[in-house]
Amino acid sequence: MIGASAVSVRLGGRDVVADVGLDVHRGEWLAIIGPNGAGKSTLLKAVMGLVAHRGEVTIDSRPAAALKPRARARLVAYAPQSPALPPDMSVFDYALLGRTPYIPYLGRESGHDRRVAASVLDRLDLTELGTRRVGELSGGERQRVVLARALAQEAPVLLLDEPTTALDLGHQQQVLELVDRLRRADGLTVVTTLHDLTVAGLYADSLLLMAEGRAVAAGRPAQVLTEALVGRHFDAQVKIERGPDGRPVVHLVRGGP
Ligand SMILES: Nc1ncnc2c1ncn2[C@@H]1O[C@H](COP(=O)(O)OP(=O)(O)OP(=O)(O)O)[C@@H](O)[C@H]1O
């Protein structure tokens, strides 16, 4: 559903993404992990066509570069890490922006568009905030509103850059479960960067570990989340156990590295 081969991005005179590929099929969830500055967000931006890059990105087997912005927006929704939000816009109107690819030029949103936005806000526990100004929200509320806009887009591919960093435990679970349900029910394809390695291993089918711009490991969570790989690339001392479902659980070791 979404593929990238030999993608490189040069910023500030160096390759911050170097020769990275990925291949995510319909209904799969890929989590991109790696230390700060590894190039995770930049790789997502390259896939979105938001940053100049070498290599090829395909969406639904079509070269992404050939897609017009409206066609691309119907195929891929992207929630950036911390976008600038228009402070005076209401939460509802901001979520409604996700419907832009379906609204005719010079036209208005339909009743269906408003219902989709309302339903997404409801599922993210945001209905009561619908009339609030976006500029007045807490960090976690803002993060869920950004996600609401992306989900309102109803695109078959969802790219999420650190979607849960500002969320409390309950809202993290709510967001991850919602995304998981959507991919199971509707075959949504999900690519997300995630800092919480246990959470990444719990929800994703496969992980891509990046370090210094390169893909240094890829595979099933248990293949990538090993004490050796995490220790080396995060410069951290960790203990990794298997949870009840066999997925890896990553613990920090006090006193390390
Ligand atoms: N416009 C820019 N000019 C120069 N360097 C940049 C630019 N944007 C990003 N970088 C650098 O590219 C590298 C990769 O950044 P990126 O945001 O992709 O990392 P990341 O893996 O998402 O990190 P984090 O976990 O901290 O969010 C970093 O070293 C960053 O400083």
Automatic annotation (TrEMBL):
> Is ATP-binding set as a keyword in this record?
yes
Q: What are the protein's UniProt keywords?
A: ATP-binding, Nucleotide-binding, Translocase, Transport
Q: One Pfam family from the UniProt entry?
A: ABC_tran
- Keyword Nuclease in record: no
Question: What Gene3D superfamilies has UniProt attached to this entry?
Answer: P-loop containing nucleotide triphosphate hydrolases (3.40.50.300)
Q: What InterPro entries does the record point to?
A: AAA+_ATPase, ABC_transporter-like_ATP-bd, ABC_transporter-like_CS, P-loop_NTPase
Where the record annotates domain ABC transporter, the positions are 2-237
Which SUPFAM superfamilies has this protein been placed in? P-loop containing nucleoside triphosphate hydrolases
An MF annotation (GO) of this entry: ATP hydrolysis activity
- Alphabetical list of PANTHER family matching this protein: HEMIN IMPORT ATP-BINDING PROTEIN HMUV
- Please give the name of this protein: ABC transporter ATP-binding protein
Q: Print the organism lineage.
A: Bacteria, Bacillati, Actinomycetota, Actinomycetes, Streptosporangiales
